[in-house]
Automatic annotation (TrEMBL):
<feature type="domain" description="Squalene epoxidase">
    <location>
        <begin position="33"/>
        <end position="305"/>
    </location>
</feature>
<keyword id="KW-0285">Flavoprotein</keyword>
<dbReference type="GO" id="GO:0016126">
    <property type="term" value="P:sterol biosynthetic process"/>
</dbReference>
<dbReference type="GO" id="GO:0016020">
    <property type="term" value="C:membrane"/>
</dbReference>
<protein>
    <recommendedName>
        <fullName>Squalene monooxygenase</fullName>
        <ecNumber>1.14.14.17</ecNumber>
    </recommendedName>
</protein>
<dbReference type="GO" id="GO:0005783">
    <property type="term" value="C:endoplasmic reticulum"/>
</dbReference>
<dbReference type="GO" id="GO:0004506">
    <property type="term" value="F:squalene monooxygenase activity"/>
</dbReference>
<keyword id="KW-0472">Membrane</keyword>
<keyword id="KW-0274">FAD</keyword>
<dbReference type="InterPro" id="IPR013698">
    <property type="entry name" value="Squalene_epoxidase"/>
</dbReference>
<keyword id="KW-0503">Monooxygenase</keyword>
<comment type="pathway">
    <text>Terpene metabolism; lanosterol biosynthesis; lanosterol from farnesyl diphosphate: step 2/3.</text>
</comment>
<feature type="transmembrane region" description="Helical">
    <location>
        <begin position="281"/>
        <end position="300"/>
    </location>
</feature>
<dbReference type="GO" id="GO:0050660">
    <property type="term" value="F:flavin adenine dinucleotide binding"/>
</dbReference>
<comment type="function">
    <text>Catalyzes the stereospecific oxidation of squalene to (S)-2,3-epoxysqualene, and is considered to be a rate-limiting enzyme in steroid biosynthesis.</text>
</comment>
<comment type="similarity">
    <text>Belongs to the squalene monooxygenase family.</text>
</comment>
<keyword id="KW-0812">Transmembrane</keyword>
Amino acid sequence: MEQGTVTSLIEEKGTVKGVKYKNKDGQDVKTYAPLTIVCDGCFSNLRKNLCIPQVNIVSHFVGMVLNLENGKLPHPNHGHVILANPSPVLFYPVSSTEVRCLVDVPGPKMPSISNGDMAKYMITKVVSQLPPDLRDPFLEQVEKGDIRSMPNRSMPASPLPTPGAVLLGDAFNMRHPLTGGGMTVALADVVVLRDLLRPMEDFTDAVALTKHLESFYTLRKPVASTINTLAGALYKVFSPEPDQASREMREACFDYLSLGGMYSEGPIALLSGLNPRPMSLVAHFFAVAIYGVGRLLLPFPSPERLLLGVRLLLSAYGIIFPIVKSEGVRQMFFPITIPSYNRGASVVMKSAMFDMMT
């Protein structure tokens, strides 16, 4: 194993042959391999020739670590999502005395940290919406200025199958990190790729290997598209537009999850990747919308509430359909109609049988 900083891919006649990198001594080195796995994350500088990078900066996370000596989480040892306006705030413990806070600041641009605009934003718009026990430690950290930021990016998977290389994880597919699903998708990618590579005995035929790996980008869809769609949809629901229908959708989502039982277990199974079924996601999403309409119409419907219910349903459709479209309707719901899926599925099945036998 060699550790270094990769600077570029080595390409010859459209085939990736290896990488150029700087080793720990700062020397430029070339190394060659029949297959290069590109997994250099959301800030990838290697993806440009391997996919169509349609990167959209949805918002920014502004992060800080709060000291628990002056406050505690309302529910110890649990993560918290504060449904603040205009967008959520996350709190979760990272040690016995510290809590990480991530404030979502919507839009591609954010207030400057260096000139104090970010501190002003936190004090005037965020702190009053936090649980009382967390306000003082939050203010203390903001006044110290020890805060950092990162862009929250979204990028649908649009790979360009290239001989000699394959993409994994955030390098070619990202979703809003509100649900923390990025690592789940990346590890699921690893499992699919492992099962596809296991029966390969010869990696030197780059064209044959590429044809074999074409199914990877389809086989990963059930897990990846479910988590991607859920992350995007939840972020839009938890960051509502100013209109009343969007706010009703957010309240309906919160109340639906609060019902417990299958109403919370189902979405959590989708969130964790344990239930990689896009149809289950769509069913739960529109169940939330219908539940919201029911709340409006009971006990006595009125023309105004009926109209608001219609707007709520249209809002739900407007949230989820663009996300599903970007993921690929056919790949999500009808992968069996794609030839590469069937070829790859048979390989994965053989790999699973091998696991059982060994």
